[in-house]
Amino acid sequence: MKKIMRFNEYENLIPLTESAYPGLIQELNNLERAEPIHSVNEGQLLNKIKNSFSKFFLGPLSRVGIIDEARRVLLELEIDILEQKHQKKKEIEEIEDQISSLSRSDDKEKIRALLKDKESKFSEIESYIKSQGLKIKKTLDFIKKTIDGNERRKEYYEVGRAEDEIALAELEYKLAKEKGDESNLKKYLDKVNSAKADAQKKAEDLGSEIKKDGEKEASPEQLVLDPEKEKKKIGGRKVRDVVKRKNELSREIIDLKEEMESKLKSLKRKVDSKTLKKTQVKNLMMDLLELSSALDAKRNLLKLLNGLGKSQDEISSKLHSETEFTKLANKINQSITDGQDANTGTKKIIAGIFSNATREGSANISSDKINDAIEKINK
């Protein structure tokens, strides 16, 4: 079965693709920035995700475009702080060296002047860090507002943020190397490697989730079986047409089972993490019931076609008997109709999961019932 994204499956990607409103863009433009010496990480992991799923618009005016730019502002501020601390520390160490040299002499006035200068350097960097810290807080508040509690936007930000941590760790390593701080080099190198591993995992997880969103579900036309079309597919009364349709149904059934299992596992994750919203319950239930109807109807039809016989002669004799073919046509109608029955088959199993949730809320969905449904679907 060809996988085509259905309209309601765009729901999970809307937070990434939707355009940001003008006020949000203006707030971004108003954020105070820094001008660090070292270049800011370009975010190759997120670029790979965007390139892999280019059919989704992830432009600069989308929500994720705003998140990217706000992250850049945040990273510039953090890099700038690291650079300024490194520079001031160097200047303070130079002053300390001068004080150490003068301590052998009796130039107390010069020493007092250097100590005052040293104290001034400490005050400067403390004030600078405090000032930049306020800008960082404002930027983080803006990012939180942009994410607006949406799980997919949060995941996207966390992937980018994990990659930013690589840039920060690499800069710390570079500055320690420049300073000749051999005792801390291994610590910083371990930090770089840990940040890379964390970023790679988060990027892979997000890429996998987006891919699942983009490759889910058959189109509504493929889900609904039309009795008249099914009759036409074997209307030539040729054995090869029956065999072809049986093979198609077998593949479609496998796809539907995989699709339902994926949705049920996603539902279970939301239930277990208590992130399932009451407003999502009805949509999830309708999607799963629609899939279960299609699965039951296709299973019924495949069973019917398999019942024509195993050998070509058996199948051919029934197809060319007017009485048998009329019975077959009527059974096709019935097998598809039976797939809609909420009291039997997969549809009954799915309805059981949501039996209390639609009236009493998402908290009444049982993980055990979901696991049981997955097991029964795959039998």
Describe, in plain words, how this protein is organized in 3D.
The protein is an all-alpha fold. It has two domains: about 210 residues; about 160 residues, no CATH class. The protein is about 75% helix and about 0% strand. The protein contains 16 helices and no strands. Helix 4 runs antiparallel to helix 5, helix 10 packs antiparallel against helix 11 and helix 11 packs antiparallel against helix 13. It is elongated. About 25% of the residues are buried.
Q: Terminal Cα separation, in Å?
A: 20 Å
Q: Looking at the chains present, what oligomeric state does this protein adopt?
A: single chain
Apparent shape: elongated
Number of strands: 0
Biggest sheet features:
none
- Our count of domains comes out at 2
Unreliable stretches covering 5 or more consecutive residues = 1-11, 52-58, 214-221
- Secondary-structure-derived class: mainly alpha
Helix content: over 70%
Strand residues, percent? under 5%
Q: Would you list the SSEs in sequence order as H and E?
A: HHHHHHHHHHHHHHHH
How do the helices and strands line up, and which of them pair or pack?
Blueprint: H1 14-17, H2 22-30, H3 44-52, H4 63-102, H5 108-147, H6 151-179, H7 182-214, H8 220-223, H9 227-233, H10 239-272, H11 278-306, H12 312-319, H13 322-338, H14 345-353, H15 357-360, H16 367-377
Helix pairs in contact: 3-7, 4-5, 4-6, 6-7, 9-13, 10-11, 10-16, 11-13, 11-14, 14-16
